[in-house]
Design goal:
By secondary structure, the chain is α/β, with parallel strands linked by helices. The chain has 4 domains: 81 residues, Chorismate mutase (Chorismate Mutase Domain, subunit A, Up-down Bundle), CATH 1.20.59.10; 90 residues, D-Maltodextrin-Binding Protein, domain 2; 76 residues, D-Maltodextrin-Binding Protein, domain 2; 81 residues, ACT domain (Alpha-Beta Plaits), CATH 3.30.70. It is built from 12 helices and 15 strands. The radius of gyration is 23 Å and the shape is globular. The site of prephenic acid (PRE) has 11 residues, from helix 1, helix 2 and helix 3. Pfam families: ACT (PF01842), CM_2 (PF01817), PDT (PF00800). Keywords: Amino-acid biosynthesis, Aromatic amino acid biosynthesis, Cytoplasm, Isomerase, Lyase, Multifunctional enzyme, Phenylalanine biosynthesis.
Protein backbone atom coordinates (compact mmCIF):
# COMPACT_ATOMS: atom_id res chain seq x y z
CA UNK A 1 0.00 0.00 0.00
CA UNK A 2 1.42 3.35 -0.97
CA UNK A 3 0.98 5.82 1.91
CA UNK A 4 1.52 8.68 -0.53
CA UNK A 5 -1.29 7.50 -2.83
CA UNK A 6 -3.64 7.01 0.14
CA UNK A 7 -2.93 10.56 1.31
CA UNK A 8 -3.66 11.99 -2.16
CA UNK A 9 -7.11 10.35 -2.22
CA UNK A 10 -7.89 11.39 1.35
CA UNK A 11 -6.91 14.97 0.55
CA UNK A 12 -9.22 14.82 -2.48
CA UNK A 13 -12.07 13.53 -0.24
CA UNK A 14 -11.47 16.34 2.29
CA UNK A 15 -11.68 18.93 -0.44
CA UNK A 16 -14.83 17.35 -1.96
CA UNK A 17 -16.46 17.12 1.49
CA UNK A 18 -15.92 20.85 1.98
CA UNK A 19 -17.59 21.52 -1.39
CA UNK A 20 -20.47 19.13 -0.63
CA UNK A 21 -20.96 20.85 2.73
CA UNK A 22 -21.02 24.30 1.12
CA UNK A 23 -23.51 23.14 -1.53
CA UNK A 24 -25.72 21.41 1.05
CA UNK A 25 -25.97 24.64 3.02
CA UNK A 26 -26.67 26.64 -0.15
CA UNK A 27 -29.48 24.17 -0.87
CA UNK A 28 -30.77 24.60 2.68
CA UNK A 29 -30.79 28.41 2.25
CA UNK A 30 -33.01 28.02 -0.83
CA UNK A 31 -35.36 25.74 1.10
CA UNK A 32 -35.51 28.27 3.94
CA UNK A 33 -36.41 31.04 1.49
CA UNK A 34 -39.06 28.78 -0.10
CA UNK A 35 -40.42 28.34 3.43
CA UNK A 36 -40.71 32.14 3.79
CA UNK A 37 -42.50 32.38 0.42
CA UNK A 38 -44.98 29.69 1.56
CA UNK A 39 -45.61 31.75 4.71
CA UNK A 40 -48.20 30.04 6.89
CA UNK A 41 -49.15 27.67 4.01
CA UNK A 42 -48.39 23.96 3.75
CA UNK A 43 -44.62 23.34 3.73
CA UNK A 44 -44.54 19.60 2.95
CA UNK A 45 -44.98 19.01 -0.80
CA UNK A 46 -45.11 15.26 -1.54
CA UNK A 47 -45.30 15.74 -5.33
CA UNK A 48 -42.14 17.87 -5.38
CA UNK A 49 -40.28 15.43 -3.11
CA UNK A 50 -41.20 12.51 -5.40
CA UNK A 51 -40.00 14.49 -8.43
CA UNK A 52 -36.68 15.38 -6.74
CA UNK A 53 -36.04 11.73 -5.78
CA UNK A 54 -37.02 10.35 -9.21
CA UNK A 55 -34.76 12.89 -10.94
CA UNK A 56 -31.82 12.05 -8.67
CA UNK A 57 -32.23 8.36 -9.59
CA UNK A 58 -32.50 9.23 -13.29
CA UNK A 59 -29.41 11.45 -13.47
CA UNK A 60 -27.26 9.37 -11.09
CA UNK A 61 -24.03 8.50 -12.98
CA UNK A 62 -22.88 5.92 -10.36
CA UNK A 63 -20.95 4.13 -8.99
CA UNK A 64 -23.35 4.72 -6.05
CA UNK A 65 -26.59 2.77 -6.69
CA UNK A 66 -29.75 4.77 -7.48
CA UNK A 67 -31.51 3.51 -4.31
CA UNK A 68 -28.60 4.72 -2.17
CA UNK A 69 -28.45 8.24 -3.62
CA UNK A 70 -32.24 8.52 -3.31
CA UNK A 71 -31.99 7.58 0.38
CA UNK A 72 -29.27 10.22 0.91
CA UNK A 73 -31.38 12.90 -0.79
CA UNK A 74 -34.39 11.78 1.26
CA UNK A 75 -32.42 12.78 4.36
CA UNK A 76 -31.17 16.03 2.80
CA UNK A 77 -34.75 17.09 1.97
CA UNK A 78 -35.88 16.05 5.44
CA UNK A 79 -33.32 18.41 7.02
CA UNK A 80 -34.15 21.21 4.55
CA UNK A 81 -37.87 20.88 5.33
CA UNK A 82 -37.14 20.96 9.07
CA UNK A 83 -35.53 24.40 8.53
CA UNK A 84 -38.81 25.60 7.00
CA UNK A 85 -40.87 23.98 9.78
CA UNK A 86 -40.34 20.65 11.59
CA UNK A 87 -43.10 18.08 10.94
CA UNK A 88 -44.77 15.88 13.55
CA UNK A 89 -45.85 12.41 12.41
CA UNK A 90 -48.31 10.16 14.26
CA UNK A 91 -47.63 6.45 13.82
CA UNK A 92 -49.00 3.20 15.19
CA UNK A 93 -46.65 2.63 18.13
CA UNK A 94 -44.96 1.77 20.32
CA UNK A 95 -41.44 2.92 19.38
CA UNK A 96 -39.66 0.40 17.16
CA UNK A 97 -42.64 -0.82 15.08
CA UNK A 98 -42.50 -1.33 11.32
CA UNK A 99 -44.87 1.64 11.06
CA UNK A 100 -42.23 3.89 12.65
CA UNK A 101 -39.67 2.45 10.20
CA UNK A 102 -42.10 3.35 7.37
CA UNK A 103 -42.59 6.89 8.75
CA UNK A 104 -38.81 7.49 8.86
CA UNK A 105 -38.36 5.95 5.40
CA UNK A 106 -40.92 8.41 4.01
CA UNK A 107 -40.18 11.62 5.95
CA UNK A 108 -36.49 11.10 6.90
CA UNK A 109 -34.93 11.41 10.34
CA UNK A 110 -35.56 15.15 10.83
CA UNK A 111 -39.31 14.57 11.22
CA UNK A 112 -40.56 14.13 14.78
CA UNK A 113 -42.36 10.75 15.06
CA UNK A 114 -44.97 10.29 17.80
CA UNK A 115 -46.04 6.79 18.91
CA UNK A 116 -49.84 6.27 19.27
CA UNK A 117 -51.58 3.40 21.07
CA UNK A 118 -54.01 2.53 18.25
CA UNK A 119 -54.83 3.23 14.61
CA UNK A 120 -57.87 5.19 15.87
CA UNK A 121 -55.63 7.48 17.93
CA UNK A 122 -53.32 8.07 14.95
CA UNK A 123 -56.31 9.30 12.91
CA UNK A 124 -57.71 11.35 15.81
CA UNK A 125 -54.47 13.23 16.56
CA UNK A 126 -54.06 14.29 12.93
CA UNK A 127 -57.78 15.02 12.36
CA UNK A 128 -57.67 17.38 15.36
CA UNK A 129 -54.46 18.94 13.97
CA UNK A 130 -52.46 18.14 17.11
CA UNK A 131 -49.98 16.41 14.77
CA UNK A 132 -49.26 17.09 11.08
CA UNK A 133 -49.36 13.70 9.29
CA UNK A 134 -50.34 10.10 9.99
CA UNK A 135 -48.65 6.87 8.89
CA UNK A 136 -50.80 3.72 9.12
CA UNK A 137 -50.42 0.18 7.71
CA UNK A 138 -53.00 -0.66 5.03
CA UNK A 139 -52.07 -4.04 3.53
CA UNK A 140 -49.55 -6.83 3.79
CA UNK A 141 -48.60 -9.05 0.85
CA UNK A 142 -49.23 -12.25 2.80
CA UNK A 143 -51.88 -11.30 5.35
CA UNK A 144 -54.02 -8.94 3.29
CA UNK A 145 -55.81 -5.76 4.31
CA UNK A 146 -55.60 -3.96 7.66
CA UNK A 147 -59.34 -3.75 8.36
CA UNK A 148 -59.29 -0.97 10.95
CA UNK A 149 -57.39 1.38 8.61
CA UNK A 150 -59.89 0.73 5.79
CA UNK A 151 -62.88 1.28 8.11
CA UNK A 152 -61.51 4.60 9.37
CA UNK A 153 -60.72 5.81 5.83
CA UNK A 154 -64.44 5.75 4.95
CA UNK A 155 -65.37 8.60 7.31
CA UNK A 156 -62.17 10.54 7.91
CA UNK A 157 -61.78 14.08 6.55
CA UNK A 158 -58.07 13.28 6.05
CA UNK A 159 -56.67 12.68 2.58
CA UNK A 160 -54.10 10.17 1.45
CA UNK A 161 -51.00 12.12 0.44
CA UNK A 162 -48.46 9.33 0.08
CA UNK A 163 -47.68 5.63 0.27
CA UNK A 164 -44.72 3.77 1.72
CA UNK A 165 -43.74 0.25 0.71
CA UNK A 166 -41.57 -1.59 3.21
CA UNK A 167 -39.98 -5.05 2.91
CA UNK A 168 -40.77 -6.78 6.19
CA UNK A 169 -38.04 -8.91 7.73
CA UNK A 170 -38.86 -10.76 10.94
CA UNK A 171 -36.23 -12.02 13.35
CA UNK A 172 -36.46 -14.32 16.38
CA UNK A 173 -35.10 -12.24 19.26
CA UNK A 174 -34.02 -13.00 22.80
CA UNK A 175 -31.83 -11.60 25.58
CA UNK A 176 -29.32 -14.48 25.32
CA UNK A 177 -27.84 -15.94 22.11
CA UNK A 178 -29.18 -19.56 22.26
CA UNK A 179 -32.49 -21.41 21.92
CA UNK A 180 -32.34 -23.30 25.25
CA UNK A 181 -35.05 -22.55 27.78
CA UNK A 182 -37.40 -20.53 25.55
CA UNK A 183 -40.92 -21.21 26.87
CA UNK A 184 -42.93 -18.62 24.97
CA UNK A 185 -42.76 -16.58 21.76
CA UNK A 186 -44.51 -13.22 21.66
CA UNK A 187 -45.45 -11.25 18.56
CA UNK A 188 -48.30 -9.48 16.82
CA UNK A 189 -50.88 -12.00 15.48
CA UNK A 190 -50.04 -11.06 11.86
CA UNK A 191 -46.32 -11.65 12.42
CA UNK A 192 -46.96 -15.01 14.13
CA UNK A 193 -49.02 -15.96 11.05
CA UNK A 194 -46.29 -14.72 8.68
CA UNK A 195 -43.69 -16.96 10.40
CA UNK A 196 -46.00 -19.93 11.05
CA UNK A 197 -44.11 -22.51 8.92
CA UNK A 198 -40.72 -21.48 10.27
CA UNK A 199 -41.96 -21.77 13.87
CA UNK A 200 -43.42 -25.25 13.18
CA UNK A 201 -40.11 -26.45 11.78
CA UNK A 202 -37.68 -24.81 14.16
CA UNK A 203 -39.23 -24.54 17.63
CA UNK A 204 -40.39 -27.40 19.91
CA UNK A 205 -44.17 -27.87 19.85
CA UNK A 206 -44.51 -26.97 23.55
CA UNK A 207 -43.22 -23.42 23.05
CA UNK A 208 -46.30 -21.26 23.52
CA UNK A 209 -47.15 -18.64 20.83
CA UNK A 210 -48.77 -15.58 22.35
CA UNK A 211 -50.09 -12.64 20.34
CA UNK A 212 -49.67 -9.11 21.71
CA UNK A 213 -50.59 -5.63 20.45
CA UNK A 214 -47.36 -5.03 18.50
CA UNK A 215 -43.98 -6.54 17.66
CA UNK A 216 -42.28 -3.80 19.65
CA UNK A 217 -44.35 -4.77 22.73
CA UNK A 218 -43.26 -8.40 22.12
CA UNK A 219 -39.61 -7.27 22.07
CA UNK A 220 -40.13 -5.31 25.28
CA UNK A 221 -41.56 -8.42 27.00
CA UNK A 222 -38.61 -10.54 25.76
CA UNK A 223 -36.17 -7.99 27.14
CA UNK A 224 -37.68 -8.45 30.62
CA UNK A 225 -37.65 -12.26 30.89
CA UNK A 226 -35.08 -14.62 29.38
CA UNK A 227 -37.60 -17.47 29.02
CA UNK A 228 -39.45 -15.32 26.44
CA UNK A 229 -38.52 -14.76 22.81
CA UNK A 230 -40.07 -12.27 20.38
CA UNK A 231 -40.63 -12.05 16.66
CA UNK A 232 -39.95 -8.48 15.57
CA UNK A 233 -37.92 -6.35 13.19
CA UNK A 234 -34.51 -4.73 13.27
CA UNK A 235 -35.54 -1.49 14.98
CA UNK A 236 -37.25 -3.33 17.86
CA UNK A 237 -34.14 -5.56 18.24
CA UNK A 238 -31.95 -2.47 18.51
CA UNK A 239 -34.32 -0.60 20.78
CA UNK A 240 -34.50 -3.45 23.34
CA UNK A 241 -30.89 -4.71 22.90
CA UNK A 242 -31.96 -8.23 21.90
CA UNK A 243 -29.89 -10.88 20.14
CA UNK A 244 -31.06 -12.33 16.80
CA UNK A 245 -31.42 -16.11 17.28
CA UNK A 246 -32.55 -16.38 13.66
CA UNK A 247 -32.83 -13.77 10.90
CA UNK A 248 -35.43 -13.31 8.15
CA UNK A 249 -37.76 -16.06 9.40
CA UNK A 250 -40.81 -14.90 7.41
CA UNK A 251 -42.32 -17.76 5.35
CA UNK A 252 -42.82 -15.57 2.29
CA UNK A 253 -39.50 -14.08 1.12
CA UNK A 254 -41.20 -11.13 -0.58
CA UNK A 255 -43.16 -10.14 2.50
CA UNK A 256 -44.05 -6.47 2.02
CA UNK A 257 -46.31 -4.05 3.90
CA UNK A 258 -47.83 -0.98 2.36
CA UNK A 259 -48.51 2.08 4.53
CA UNK A 260 -50.51 5.23 3.83
CA UNK A 261 -49.52 8.79 4.70
CA UNK A 262 -52.54 10.91 5.64
CA UNK A 263 -52.84 14.66 6.01
CA UNK A 264 -55.14 17.61 5.37
CA UNK A 265 -53.89 18.59 1.92
CA UNK A 266 -54.78 17.78 -1.67
CA UNK A 267 -51.55 16.74 -3.40
CA UNK A 268 -50.75 18.18 -6.86
CA UNK A 269 -49.82 15.77 -9.71
CA UNK A 270 -46.22 14.47 -9.62
CA UNK A 271 -46.30 12.79 -13.04
CA UNK A 272 -46.55 9.26 -11.62
CA UNK A 273 -49.52 9.06 -9.30
CA UNK A 274 -52.16 6.78 -7.81
CA UNK A 275 -55.71 7.61 -6.76
CA UNK A 276 -57.49 5.69 -4.02
CA UNK A 277 -61.28 5.67 -3.85
CA UNK A 278 -63.95 3.94 -1.79
CA UNK A 279 -67.20 2.95 -3.48
CA UNK A 280 -70.36 1.16 -2.42
CA UNK A 281 -72.60 -0.62 -4.89
CA UNK A 282 -76.37 -0.95 -4.71
CA UNK A 283 -77.28 -4.44 -3.48
CA UNK A 284 -78.45 -6.01 -6.77
CA UNK A 285 -77.05 -8.59 -9.21
CA UNK A 286 -74.41 -7.25 -11.60
CA UNK A 287 -73.89 -4.04 -9.61
CA UNK A 288 -70.18 -4.69 -8.95
CA UNK A 289 -69.56 -5.61 -12.57
CA UNK A 290 -71.19 -2.36 -13.67
CA UNK A 291 -68.92 -0.39 -11.26
CA UNK A 292 -65.84 -1.48 -13.17
CA UNK A 293 -67.10 -0.45 -16.62
CA UNK A 294 -66.23 3.30 -16.39
CA UNK A 295 -62.59 2.43 -15.68
CA UNK A 296 -62.35 0.09 -18.71
CA UNK A 297 -64.19 2.61 -20.94
CA UNK A 298 -61.72 5.38 -20.08
CA UNK A 299 -58.56 3.24 -20.18
CA UNK A 300 -57.86 3.71 -16.46
CA UNK A 301 -55.89 0.83 -14.86
CA UNK A 302 -56.79 -0.57 -11.47
CA UNK A 303 -53.93 -1.60 -9.17
CA UNK A 304 -56.09 -2.80 -6.27
CA UNK A 305 -59.66 -3.93 -5.61
CA UNK A 306 -60.55 -4.86 -2.06
CA UNK A 307 -64.01 -5.54 -0.66
CA UNK A 308 -64.99 -5.00 2.94
CA UNK A 309 -68.34 -5.43 4.73
CA UNK A 310 -69.87 -2.01 5.26
CA UNK A 311 -70.51 -1.28 8.90
CA UNK A 312 -73.76 0.44 7.92
CA UNK A 313 -75.80 -2.58 6.73
CA UNK A 314 -75.60 -6.36 7.21
CA UNK A 315 -75.14 -7.41 3.57
CA UNK A 316 -73.71 -4.28 2.01
CA UNK A 317 -70.10 -4.08 0.93
CA UNK A 318 -67.74 -1.21 0.26
CA UNK A 319 -64.92 -1.51 -2.26
CA UNK A 320 -61.49 0.07 -1.92
CA UNK A 321 -60.07 0.70 -5.37
CA UNK A 322 -56.63 2.06 -6.37
CA UNK A 323 -56.36 3.59 -9.84
CA UNK A 324 -53.37 4.68 -11.87
CA UNK A 325 -53.20 8.46 -12.34
CA UNK A 326 -54.22 11.68 -10.57
CA UNK A 327 -57.86 12.67 -10.02
CA UNK A 328 -57.12 15.82 -12.04
CA UNK A 329 -56.29 13.73 -15.16
CA UNK A 330 -59.04 13.94 -17.80
CA UNK A 331 -59.44 10.15 -18.23
CA UNK A 332 -59.60 9.56 -14.51
CA UNK A 333 -62.07 12.38 -14.03
CA UNK A 334 -64.38 10.86 -16.66
CA UNK A 335 -64.07 7.42 -15.05
CA UNK A 336 -64.96 8.94 -11.65
CA UNK A 337 -67.98 10.75 -13.16
CA UNK A 338 -69.16 7.43 -14.70
CA UNK A 339 -68.68 5.72 -11.36
CA UNK A 340 -70.62 8.41 -9.48
CA UNK A 341 -73.59 7.79 -11.81
CA UNK A 342 -73.66 4.03 -11.02
CA UNK A 343 -72.44 3.70 -7.41
CA UNK A 344 -74.51 4.29 -4.27
CA UNK A 345 -71.54 6.17 -2.80
CA UNK A 346 -68.09 7.30 -4.03
CA UNK A 347 -65.38 9.06 -2.05
CA UNK A 348 -61.97 10.03 -3.43
CA UNK A 349 -59.53 9.24 -0.61
CA UNK A 350 -56.69 11.08 -2.33
CA UNK A 351 -54.26 11.24 -5.25
CA UNK A 352 -50.60 10.85 -4.37
CA UNK A 353 -47.18 9.98 -5.85
CA UNK A 354 -46.34 6.30 -6.36
CA UNK A 355 -43.70 5.34 -3.75
CA UNK A 356 -40.18 6.20 -4.98
CA UNK A 357 -37.99 4.63 -2.27
O1 LIG B 1 -39.75 22.80 -3.10
C1 LIG B 1 -40.24 23.03 -1.99
O2 LIG B 1 -41.42 23.39 -1.86
C2 LIG B 1 -39.41 22.93 -0.78
O3 LIG B 1 -39.88 23.27 0.29
C3 LIG B 1 -38.05 22.33 -0.86
C4 LIG B 1 -38.05 20.84 -0.53
C5 LIG B 1 -36.60 20.33 -0.83
O4 LIG B 1 -35.81 20.25 0.10
O5 LIG B 1 -36.32 20.05 -2.00
C6 LIG B 1 -38.37 20.63 0.91
C7 LIG B 1 -39.63 20.27 1.34
C8 LIG B 1 -40.74 20.01 0.44
O6 LIG B 1 -41.53 18.97 0.90
C9 LIG B 1 -40.29 19.80 -0.94
C10 LIG B 1 -39.03 20.13 -1.36
Amino acid sequence: MSEELLKQHRDAIDSIDAQVLKLLNERAEHARTIGEIKGSGVVYRPEREAQVLRRIKDINPGPLPGESVARLFREIMSECLALERPLSIAFLGPEGTFTQQAAVKHFGHAAHTVACASIDEVFRLVESRQLDYAVVPVENSTEGAVGRTLDLLVNTPLKICGEVVLRIHHHLLRKTPDFDGVRRVYSHAQSLAQCHEWLNKNLPADVERVSVASNAEAARLASEDDSFAAIAGQSAAERYSLVKLAENIEDEPNNTTRFLVLGHQDVAPSGQDKTSIVVSAPNRPGAVHSLLAPMAENGVSMTKFESRPSRAGLWDYVFFIDLEGHHGDAALQQALDGLAARAAYVKVLGSYPVAVL
